[in-house]
Write a structure and sequence with these properties.
The protein is mainly alpha-helical and about 130 residues long. It has helices at about 5-15, 20-30, 40-45, 50-60, 70-85, 95-105, 115-120, and strands at about 5, 35, 110.
């Protein structure tokens, strides 16, 4: 099973260098070639880094992962998910709903530390990776 790894997990593991269960779980997924990356997550990870050295180091680490294509259908599904969740009083970012759409449309699990995805899962057919 392929796993779409959310920005929150990458950030915990790569930027903050925290030793946690996330490090071990992500390492296992990488070693078993289960990790899926999309461009918007790559952009979120690389944005806001003021040090050129840190930016280049992170960019180099992420180069090992190809971006999975995002289709017109993914964007349309993301908009539907945004509208559906909003109608239930649940707010989220456009990137979050794109992650949900790509995951559903490609039969992927989502590995995240972001609790918002638990709210989305109440109304969307997403599956959260628990490890």
């Amino acid at each position: 099973m392929k796993i779409l790894v959310d920005t929150s997990i990458w950030s915990l593991v790569l930027r903050r260098n925290q030793q946690s269960d996330y490090v071990e779980k992500l390492t296992d997924l990488i070693l078993s070639s289960q990790v899926v990356m999309i461009g918007p997550i790559r952009q979120e990870l690389l944005s806001g880094i003021s040090s050129k050295k840190v930016y280049e180091d992170l960019k180099s680490r992420l180069e090992h992962f190809d971006d999975s294509p995002i289709t017109k259908s993914d964007y349309e599904t993301a908009a539907q998910y945004y509208n559906l969740c909003r109608s239930h009083g649940i707010q989220g970012s456009h990137v979050d709903f794109l992650i949900c759409a790509v995951a559903v449309n490609n039969n992927l699990l989502i590995f995240t530390a972001d609790k918002d995805f638990e709210y989305y899962a109440q109304h969307l057919p997403i599956r959260i990776y628990k490890g």
